[in-house]
Amino acid sequence: MPELPEVEVVVHQLRLHILGATVRKIWIGREDIIRQGLSTLGWYQGVTLTDIQRCGKCIVMTCLRGTQPRYLVAELGMTGLLVFHKQAIPDEKHTHMVLSLDGGRVPELRYWNARRFGRLYFLDQPGLDTFLRRRFGLDPFSASENQFVSLVKSCRGRMKALLLNQQKIAGIGNIYANEILYRARIHPHAQGARLSKARIHQLYGAMREVLKEAIRYGGSTIRDFRAPDGTPGRFQERHQVYQKAGLPCPRGCKTLLRRLVTERSSFYCPTCQGRS
DNA sequence: CGTTGAACCTGTTTGC
DNA sequence: TGCAAACAGGTTCAAC
């Protein structure tokens, strides 16, 4: 569910509603949802949320107590949600954390996750630095075109795999990898190193356009995704290829879209997205 | 180092 | 209808 655009939408709403709020109480449903920092939980009582950012697909909240910062990092995985009200979640049994807040526009923030592929991390500054360094490569919006060209040129593997590799470029998941490659007319199995500079230029533009447009439409809701206020995304209405195998190519080339089942599902047009 | 596939979980959809 | 298999937005680890 949550790839860069969805996380960006979440962060935007969190900033509007809970930035500056104080954490009165933290309720944890099951402790194994916390991958790091369980023993530091007590420290967070009374902290103020002074900054909220997206890093890759993670939400990073700065928690200040006096002048000391620590961080709460939420990883959503496939089914994770951060929401303001219980009405926004399908059921109560997968709520794993509730922050009770003072001084924000909403009284609480809930972390819900049915499949529990995502986790929570309570980190100090060095812990956060290590976490970010080990995990995330270039950011699609901060990376220059030259940096992106070097990255692609150094890739001996498949382009789809490169776009999904968070340590190389952070934030893109299966939906947007497919949509980006379709827009750039590049085959999911094209070898990065063999693409011309002109085609990498296309890809760089397609990546930023698709992600930007998806943010503008509130992300994609396939099933569970909601913004914190409960609003579903609308970008799924604009998907060109994702989960559309068997339908005609939207460019009108009369070819039927296909699905490759190696790795994770790749959806593409065999005519528009020629190899290499 | 790069690639592939399985594993981690739960829920929903599909097919017999 | 009933049940099993397939599949789902992600990450990580082992094996090659």
The named CATH superfamily of the largest domain: MutM-like, N-terminal
Level-2 CATH architecture of the largest domain: Alpha-Beta Barrel
Q: In what range is the share of β-strand residues?
A: 15-25%
Using DSSP, what is the number of strands?
11
Q: Estimate the global geometry from the Cα principal axes.
A: globular
Low-confidence stretches: none
**Ends: how far apart?**
29 Å
CATH top level assignment of the largest domain: Alpha Beta
Read across the widest sheet, the strand sequence of neighbours is: 2-9-5-4-3
Q: Output mean pLDDT.
A: 96
* Helicity range: 25-40%
Q: From the alpha carbons, calculate the radius of gyration and give it in angstroms.
A: 20 Å
Helical/strand content category: alpha+beta
The fold-level CATH name of the largest domain is N-terminal domain of MutM-like DNA repair proteins
Give an overview in words:
By secondary structure, the chain is an alpha+beta fold. It folds into two domains: 4-135, N-terminal domain of MutM-like DNA repair proteins, CATH 3.20.190.10; 145-268, Helicase, Ruva Protein, domain 3. Helices cover 26% and strands 22% of the residues. The chain is built from six helices and eleven strands. A five-stranded mixed sheet has the order 2-9-5-4-3. Helix 1 packs across helix 6. The model has no long low-confidence stretch (mean pLDDT 96). It binds a DNA duplex (16 and 16 nucleotides) through residues 1-3, 6, 57, 75-80, 90, 94, 113-118, 135, 156-158, 161, 164, 166, 173-176, 220, 222-225, 262-265.
